[in-house]
Design goal:
351 residues, alpha+beta, 10 helices
Length: 351
Amino acid sequence: MQPLITPLEGERSPWLPGYHVKILDGNCIAASEHRLTVLREVQAGALPGKSLVVYEPTYGVVSDVFPCEDGHAHERAMLGQVLETVQPRDLWIQDRNFCPCAFFCGIETRGAGFITRQHAGLPFAGRTSWRASGRIETGHVAEQWVEVRDAQGQTHLFRRIQVKLDQATRDGDRVRYLLTNLPLYKASAKRVARLYRTRWTLETAFQHLEAYFHSEINTLGYPKAALFGFCLALVADNMLAVVLAALRSVHGQDPIDPDLSLYYVAHEIAQTYQGMMMAIPEEEWRVFSCMAPAEFVATLQMLARQVRLSAYRKSPRGPKKPRLKRAGTTKTPHVSTAKLLREQQTRVMAR
């Protein structure tokens, strides 16, 4: 899809000029139904597989996926395959699950950059004391230089970024540590901390895949089938990235990325697809397969000019309310919704 997005000039602004940003994250496919014979007498959830996904935010596409049929396999076992794809001037951003020394030292050896959250078990030696670097939206930032030794005994000098958070994370952490090999003149400590926060872009993409493209079909019990279905959803999402690039090339980036509702776009596609397939003969679609890239780009831009963006605008929502604490007990693991509704209605009528 990149040969279409580039001439459309529909790329997003680069996150760090001079680097090709890639976000790495894992996706574990949800438990499937117990349709297979080997699963019918198993009470535990059946995991049909997992994968590592590489997302390129500049283009908005998934550029690589590393599937694994073993749902119990550790994500780190697949990092060797990922390392073979690292190119010079890449910038890899990943969570602490992908913080083994061999992986990020291998990234540096290949001439690429990385930003990773430090795993608590990573051995290192401090070389400088902490130096305050100011404040970002989530807390105060400081940095130091540390030394890491790889399996071959070679030493690597990295920057260690500390972010003292104003609010604790979901895991209760109040301090976050990051490691990077980016030179200081390319990215300050605050820039590195902000870049790591954007890692959630891929988490959001996974949510969109499940909500809009049904990437995890729980009736697919065989690992190959479940992983194939997930990869098809990735392909559909990449095609949607071309649509968004065409809209950005015509209407600009500001009204598309923050305001366009992917839910409404996906709903429009699902709602009209079958009707279009019946109304328009198959041979009428073949013209697109014969188009040269330049002609196809011009066609996409022509169609994008006719899109009424107001019909696909996100619905604004108010601030989130704090979650109420729910009363729970092991004696009654289930409740009757109908019974609770009747009790509520009785209380209202008594008033």
